[in-house]
Amino acid sequence: MTYEASARPTMLVVDDEPSICELIGEVAESEGYDVALASARDDIDRLIVLDHDITVLDLDLGRAGDDDVLRALAMRCPGARVVFVSGADAGTVVDAHRRAATYGLQVVGSCAKPFDLRTFRRVLSRHNHGLPAEFAGSGHSTPL
After folding, report:
1. How far is it, in rounded angstroms, from Cα 107 to Cα 80?
2. How many domains does the chain have?
3. Could you tell me if residue 4 is inside a domain?
4. Is 5 contained in some domain?
5. Residue 128 maps to which CATH number?
6. Order of strands, edge to edge, in the sheet holding 34-38?
7. Of 1, 61, 59, whose CA–CA distance to 33 is shortest?
8. pTM, whole model, 2 decimals?
9. Which of 23, 20, 28, 19 is nearest to 3 (CA)?
10. pLDDT tens digit sequence for 63-89
11. Contacts with 98 (C-beta within 8 Å, 6 or more apart), sequence order
12. 3-class secondary structure for the chain?
């Protein structure tokens, strides 16, 4: 899935598991987003430069490196809005929030993996309506 110029909000999904990318993308499309998926480093490098409204970023990208992606996103899209998805412990998520803030990115939510799709939809809905960020899932339930 990739997107072209549209009135719909746009989303970049970055996860090293293609099946997770596709699932998040399908949910986002059902919520009205045009979606681009990136699960390989080449895809990430190619798609991160596009103008998108929100980026969903897995915090355990393996060889792609989530910190490398955060830095690249900050350089190419200053002030970008990010939702973290992660199976990591709360300390790792807190650290990611700090790094994102250091790079000038806006974290608008996070979801623990595995996550309930209703929770992810709620995070998107809150973002779409300009409501405060939501940090949902085990170990991520308090605002950071």
Report:
1. 8
2. 1
3. no
4. no
5. 3.40.50.2300
6. 34-38, 10-14, 54-58, 81-86, 106-112, 134-136
7. 1
8. 0.83
9. 28
10. 556 778 888 889 888 888 999 988 888
11. none
12. CCCCCCCCCEEEEECCCHHHHHHHHHHHHHCCCEEEEECCHHHHHHHCCCCCCEEEEECCCHHHCHHHHHHHHHHHCCCCEEEEEECCCHHHHHHHHHHHHHCCCEEEEEEECCCCHHHHHHHHHHHHCCCCCEEECCCCCCCC
Q: Which two tokens stand for residue 37?
A: 């998926």
Among 55-59, 87-91, 112-116, 136-140, the least confident range: 136-140
Structural domain includes residue 71: yes
Please indicate, yes or no, if residue 2 is contained in any of the structural domains.
Answer: no
Q: Which residues pair with 34 in a beta bridge?
A: 10
Residue 77 belongs to domain spanning: 10-136
Residue type, 136: A
